[in-house]
Amino acid sequence: MDMIEKLVHELTEKKLTISFMESASGGGLANAVTNVEGASEVLGFSAVTYSNEFKIKMGVPQDVILKYTVYSIETAREMARSIKEFSHSSIGVGVTGKLNRVDKYNLYGDDHVVFVAVFYQGQFYEYSYRAQKKSQKENKEDLILFIAERILELL
Which pTM was predicted? Predict the structure, then answer.
């Protein structure tokens, strides 16, 4: 059983639901989960919010983005909280950052760091991932497994 299958299995066994607000992972988490049979039991809604505009529309306070930047653990935390509340999930996950790339609209921050926040049982769990690979695809795949491992540790 791979990491994502194990995650879906654990969520199903514990009767928990999960939702993702993804930026740096580009919907890869939701995609990976929906590739597992039975995913509809644990995933009802997720959002890919590449732009600041849509993070704000999904409930991330604009003042958090302005104060801490879009590439911050504070923004990831608000993404996790917002998506959990919006979807009424047991667990909300927020992912924002850069995977070895420059964002011409947001030039600040490390171009190799992704911030991840998990909101579960009224508590935030915060992580950072440093992109190590050259290709975007490989970094995304590693990031998705990194996040799945962190969530499994919480269950």
Answer: 0.92
